[in-house]
Design brief:
This protein is an all-alpha fold. The protein has 21 helices and no strands. It has one domain: Growth Hormone, Chain: A, CATH 1.20.1250.20. It is globular.
Length: about 450
Amino acid sequence: MKLTPVELMRVRVGDRLERLPVCSYHRFLFMVIALAFFFDNLDLAMMTYLLGSIRTEFGLTSAQAGMLGSASFVGMAIGALSSGMLADRFGRKPVFQVSMIVWGVGSFLCSTANDPVTLGIYRLLLGVGMGMELPLAQTLLSEFIPARQRGKYLALMDGNWPIAFICAGLMSYYVLSAYSWRTMFLLGAVPALFLFVVRRYVPESPRWLESKGRHEEASALVARIEATVMRRMKLSSLPEAESKVVSPDAEVFGVKVLWSPEYRNRTLTVWGLWFFALLGFYGLNTWIGALLQQTGMGVTKSVLYTVYISIGGIPGFLCAAWAVEHWGRKPACVITLVGGAVMAFVYGRVAGMSPEPMALFLAGGLMQFFMFGMWAVLYTYTPELYPTRARATGCGMASTVGRFGSLIGPTLVGVVLPLAGQAGVFALGAACFLAAAFIVYCFGIETRGESLETISAH
């Protein structure tokens, strides 16, 4: 039965989007958002490969280098906090575009820095843009993909993180052999031009429009999406939407929702997860290249070794994309965190003994397998925990808390390294992952296969 325009206005846009078959329209939208996410992560990954060269040029101590490595995470905390609240108020698309401009300008400015203080300031600005973009990408994509494949697509989008990590390493390997680290930051600014593609092809979220009471705009946008899906799949009709009741427009938005009785436990759980997971991840990965150089390995060789180790992240996120849909978000999260803890501890032992390259690659590759798989689950799980009126704020706040962990991690490693060596550094990372796994195991909920509206109603 075909619904009239008036009847369509009484059907939640979420129910209309959920009934759509996943087709080339969704895959194209995924590709555009995922590419923007990839370019952002490319800038984020660069510091892993450039910190050693920057430290050498400026004659920094390990603690000073750790503070410089943490500078972008201060900006990311600011960016994530502001972008979530702004996106819930003004829309996903405009804030997403602003974030790309900020990180593009920040990356360019980093290429002009002539002293560590100036570089730290520019890294902070770059971090603001990166912090704005990352939670918005997961929010925007989650609001378009139907529940039956939402987890897979969100996990695959985050798979751009290990790929970006590897690409940044390959770029560094070739660029640093002929140019300086400044050239890397200059190249990192160019993809900000992808903003024009996002502006043209990514629509505003219909779910957000509806949450703001803009029902006519939301319905008209979903109607265009429905027409596109029908045309591409050569369908004469679509399944009828299950619900025909639009909930009254809620009066509470943003941060107030996160601390309401219905969502308080979810907020505390996801904050603990992000804080410990990112403290461990960035504490270790920001320093991997520099730690290899500390053992006497040359700059370009250490970069290449780090790239080889990071390849383990590709099967890691692919397995996580499968696991979140077949095992569920909660078990996939716990397994990747515990696996990351075990392999971080093992890698620390192996690296501290100046091993054969094969042992280093194997231990490091397995460590990255679990750690990048963890990222895929994080970006799948977080946006599902909150209603549309607070989803971007929830993702942004979780990311902000995580960025505090990111800020502490590299600096803490710089302090611990002279006292406990590489084994102690990686044991610290393992403890962080175990703490995150414990929090999810005890307090996390399962969200697999349910619409965003259904999860919000729990």
